[in-house]
Each structure stands twice: as structure tokens, then as C-alpha cells.
Amino acid sequence: MKDEDTLLAEDAERLAALKKKYAENPPIPPTPTAKQTLIKGETVIEEAGTGMAAVIPLARATSDPMDKMTLVAFLPPDSTAKILDLAPLDDSAFTAIDKRLDDSGRFASFTGTPQTSTNLSLRLSVSQPTTAMIQGSGGIQPFKLELRPQTR
């Protein structure tokens, strides 16, 4: 039979392994199946001062009027980067805009009502290279963004 110290050490090792696994590949919460009202294009990653930025192009899938859409970005718990902003490239592309950025800089959300504009692109800015997990409404499936300098 193992003594209490051995059991505690084994539990600590298992916990450390789970934390490492989560940090390397955090789970993405499931997104309910939604009507496809938005289409995501190819994301463009660029250096922005000492940080990084990603332009996430979105376009309407139909000409039907749209309700509010939401895009959420979050960083892994072990990231030292901070989200600086999540905003549209063109403010006139949305009305009823609500932007939120938590105090830790690990979570940001953007909600707005898309107008008839075809350029519904959003820009995610972070303080340094990192990985971001993105979720959206309008049929946008969760995806991972590697915000790192591009190698040529």
C-alpha cells in the first residue's frame, strides 16, 4: 500500500500532465448548429509593432437581413500575450456595436448588427505572438489562429 505522500505526489503529477495537455490543445466548446449567414475568408496575419494582428474577413452568405453577430476570441491560460482589441476594419459596416475586453486581456468579444456592406472584416490585435481560439455566430465554426510572424 502506498503512503499518503506518494499518493499526493502521483496526484500532482497527473494534474501537471492535464494542465500541460490543456495548455497545448485547449478544448473548444461546441457551437450549436446555426443557419449559415456569414462566410469566413482566409485570415491574414501581420506584425503590428511589437505585437501581432489578424484580419478575419467575413462576408454575408445571403442577402437576407441579419440579426446581431458575435465573434469571441480567447487566449490559452498559459499565454503571456494579451488581447489589445477586437474591432471591425470599417465601423460603418456594423450598428449596435458592443465590444468587451476582460481585465486579464485573455478574452474579447465583438457583437454588432451587420449592414449591407460586403467588408465585415474584424481585426484581432494581441501584444505578442500567441495562439487564439475564435468562436462566432452566424454559422462560423470555431477555429484556432496562430498569431506568429510569417516565415517566407
Share of residues in strands: 35-45%
State the helicity in percent bands: 10-25%
Which outline best applies? elongated
The largest beta-sheet arranges its strands as 7-8-5-10-11
SSE succession: HEEEEEEEEEEE
Q: What is the terminal-to-terminal distance?
A: 58 Å
- Rg, rounded, reads 19 Å
Mean pLDDT: 82
Q: What is the number of helices?
A: 1
Structural class: mainly beta
What is the count of β-strands? 11
Q: pLDDT below 50 for ≥5 consecutive residues: which ranges? A: none
Q: Largest sheet at a glance?
A: 5 strands, antiparallel
What does this entry look like structurally?
By secondary structure, the protein is mainly beta. It is built from 1 helix and 11 strands. A 5-stranded antiparallel β-sheet has the order 7-8-5-10-11, with no helix packed on it. The longest helix has 21 residues, at 4-24. It is elongated.
